[in-house]
Automatic annotation (TrEMBL):
Gene Ontology MF term list: acetyl-CoA carboxylase activity; transferase activity
PROSITE patterns: COA_CT_NTER
GO cellular component: acetyl-CoA carboxylase complex
Species, as recorded: Astrephomene gubernaculifera
Keyword Transferase annotated: yes
The UniProt record lists the keyword Zinc: no
Family annotation (InterPro entries): AcCoA_carboxyl_beta, Acetyl_CoA_COase_Trfase_b_su, ClpP/crotonase-like_dom_sf, COA_CT_N
Protein name: CoA carboxyltransferase N-terminal domain-containing protein
Pfam families: Carboxyl_trans
């Protein structure tokens, strides 16, 4: 009887639950077929008074129904202003040995594989953080961006490719330039970025590197360029090829005239026009281990020569063995090696002092104009700068502050225009700087002149060719310059 009663009670209980669960099967099934309208299954169970709750259990009954896990993970966090970037992830794979690498640890190890010591690609910002002391990086010419001079179109418009690359990398073009301290030593640094259209060299890359080199030449700083590129940019045609000669000409003045140091760092890959120009012009050429460096591709050379090339052809170790490189330095020791090279160069006992045979000052930009206004206000408050009178325009006095030279050139060019001086910059009545500062219209006119013109100066060729006593007399009087404005 007891067993029968127990069995009957169990059957009654099952029948009750079955009857109450039956109406809920339809909404549970419909949840997977279509979005559920009305109360959730959990709330429906509570409303019917059943002790069994079907559907997802919410910690807070006032919460909205649970979303799809993939959609919830990809949705932006309302507390964060940045969207979640799922493309980077947490793990990556080595390109050589295939080892799975944790990205956080990989960045701390300078993107070097833990399994085979293969050097993976780094972004330009990561290289700057690695080489430059924290808080000392000062970018140059950040606003320069490319244009489409040839209206080039292949599978898509060149302008569309530029926009895509800029949105992908956050860069205006394939190089970052600026100045910073390397273990306390001021250097001018240019870093190419392969993620921007393969690091190809266009007109903006050539212009930014040329300006960087000319600025370093004027300031007497060593230049370091980290190269990673597929060569000249096809979409700009002859304009990209002209950058090879322009950068090489600036490096000639920097190295051979001013006797300043230039270090080229070749990373993987460095090919094409970059290798054929400034990549191989360094006083010291350094490469990373196993970096691919060459002009033409391996397959093109094999098809042209109809020969099988060695397995290590166009690698850094192969080029070092054949004398095209000076050093192969692992990435972890690169900053220390650069510091030792530059420090040894600075402390060299037998070092010839160089000179700049000519110079070009282009139109001013907003930052330069602000510097001019601050220097003008400083001069107005404190009177004449160190060195007394501005002197004749044919004589350029070198001040202790290297930046002051540009402002004196600005004043000299403005005086030459106002006073009607000759082509050599000489005038019968030199204008004193104090008188120029007292004129309220002088500063706006000088800034307008500097923004719309280009100032060039050269040393007097007569003194360069005279030699002997004339040269000694010229050294006693100071360097003489000839100014020309366009």
């Amino acid at each position: 009887m007891l067993s029968a009663g127990t069995s009957k009670g169990c059957c009654v209980q099952r029948s009750c639950n079955g009857a109450k669960l039956a109406p809920q099967l339809k909404p549970v099934i419909s949840r997977f077929a279509a979005p559920l309208r009305g109360p959730s299954p959990a709330h429906a169970g509570e409303a019917s008074g059943s002790p069994i709750v079907s559907g997802p259990i919410a910690v807070n009954p006032s919460m909205s129904p649970a979303l799809d896990p993939v959609a919830a993970a990809s949705a932006p966090d309302p507390k964060s202003s940045k969207a979640v970037d799922r493309s980077k992830g947490l793990w990556t794979r080595c390109d050589k040995c295939g080892t799975i690498l944790y990205i956080k640890h990989l960045k701390e190890h300078h993107h070097i594989c833990f399994g085979c010591n293969y050097h993976l690609k780094m972004s330009s910002q990561e290289r700057i953080n690695h080489l430059v002391d924290a808080g000392t990086w000062r970018p140059l010419d950040e606003t320069l961006s490319p244009v489409d001079p040839l209206d080039f179109t292949d599978l898509k418009l060149y302008t569309d490719r530029i926009k895509e690359a800029q949105e992908k990398t956050g860069l205006q073009d394939a190089v970052r330039t600026g100045t910073g301290l390397l273990h306390g030593i001021p250097v001018a640094l240019g870093v190419m970025d392969f993620s921007y259209m393969g690091g190809s060299m266009g007109s903006v890359v050539g212009e930014k590197l040329t300006r960087l080199i000319e600025y370093a030449t004027q300031e007497g700083m060593p230049v370091i360029i980290v190269c990673t590129s597929g060569g000249a940019r096809m979409q700009e045609g002859i304009f990209s090829l002209m950058q090879m000669a322009k950068i090489s000409a600036a490096l000639h003045v920097h190295q051979n005239c001013a006797n300043l140091l230039y270090i080229a760092i070749l990373t993987s890959p460095t090919t094409g026009g970059v290798t054929a120009s400034f990549g191989m012009l360094g006083d010291v050429i350094i490469a990373e281990p196993q970096a691919i460096i060459g002009f033409a591709g391996r397959r093109v050379i094999e098809q042209t020569l109809q020969e099988q090339l060695p397995d290590d052809f166009q690698t850094a170790e192969y080029l070092l063995e054949h004398g095209l490189l000076d050093l192969v330095v692992p990435r972890s020791f690169l900053k220390g090696a650069l510091y030792e090279i530059i420090d040894f160069y600075r402390a060299a006992p037998f070092k010839r002092r160089g000179s700049i045979p000519f110079g070009v000052q282009h139109g001013t930009f907003l930052t330069t104009e602000e510097k001019v206004r601050r220097r003008w206000a400083q001069w107005s408050r404190s009177g004449l700068p160190a060195g007394g009178s501005n002197g004749s325009s044919g004589q350029l006095a070198v001040a202790s502050d290297a930046g002051a030279v540009s402002y004196r050139e600005l004043v000299s060019s403005f005086r030459t225009l106002v006073e009607g001086g000759g082509s050599n910059g000489s005038s019968s009545a030199p204008l004193e700087l104090q008188e120029l500062l007292g004129d309220p219209e002088a500063l706006p006119a000088a800034l307008e002149l500097a923004a719309q013109s280009k100032l060039e100066w050269m040393q007097r060729t007569q003194q360069l060719l005279a030699g002997g006593q004339a040269e000694e007399a010229a050294q006693g009087q100071g360097q003489q310059y000839v100014f020309r404005m366009q």
